Amino acid sequence: MSRRMRLPFSLGRFDARRHGGVLALVLGLVIVINAGVWYFVIRPVDLAITRLEQDELTADQARARSRKRLDALLNAHQSVLDRQKRVRLFYEQMLSTRAERSVPFQRALGEVAKEFGVRPQQVQIGFSGLPQEGIEIMTMTFPIDGGYENLRRFLARLESLEQFLIVREVALQGGPAGGRTLRLSVSLETYFNDPSLREEQARQREWKRRVRGKRTRRGGR
């Protein structure tokens, strides 16, 4: 014979007043089990998911900050490369060496001087240098006579030359008798690339370093 599990009450004859305590116990047990499942199973999973979401958000923010810093570094690096390129082009193409550009420069300037009546024997030429930058400076100083408009056209003509030059100084010296014309002393500069100046500077620094080293070793004996 098969045994059947007997409930403490019959479903067909359920009486809330008689069996309410049993029902409350069963419902309470279900609530406790659900609470236990939520606390020991579901809650840790929810917390783990929340931590993962927070970690992912933090990682995304950190990646965004790192990407921003990387982009800034890349832009700075590219800016440095661009500047180095412009400096190299300035030295190699705009300045060139004296042997490469001196004759074209003086020829172009001579044509302008002839156009405005400057006599070649009045031109004074001098040379100086910026050793650390590897630049040689050629200075040309000469007087020019004329009215205001003529002098203005002369300066504008100099600025239109393709040759690299700087009008360093324009000084009024007065003019011929009568005062209808002016005499200006014009000083121009142009620069040449001279790597030998930098090399000489480097040799001098190395020589001084060796001398200091020898003196230091002698003093320590």
Structure in words:
This protein is α+β, with helices and mostly antiparallel strands. It folds into two domains: 88 residues; 106 residues, 2-Layer Sandwich (Alpha-Beta Plaits). It contains four helices and four strands; from the N terminus they run ααββαββα. A four-stranded antiparallel β-sheet has the order 1-2-4-3. It starts with 15 loop residues before the first helix and ends with a helix.
CATH superfamily membership of the largest domain:
Ribosomal protein S6/Translation elongation factor EF1B
CATH architecture of the largest domain: 2-Layer Sandwich
The largest β sheet comes out as: 4 strands, antiparallel
How many helices? The count is 4
Strand percentage: 15-25%
DSSP strand count: 4
Q: How are the strands of the biggest sheet laid out side by side?
A: 1-2-4-3
CATH topology of the largest domain: Alpha-Beta Plaits
**What share of residues is helical?**
55-70%
Distance between the termini: 117 Å
Number of domains: 2
Roughly how many Å is the radius of gyration?
46 Å
Return the CATH class of the largest domain.
Alpha Beta
SSE ordering: HHEEHEEH
Structural class: alpha+beta
Spatial shape: elongated
Point out poorly predicted stretches.
none
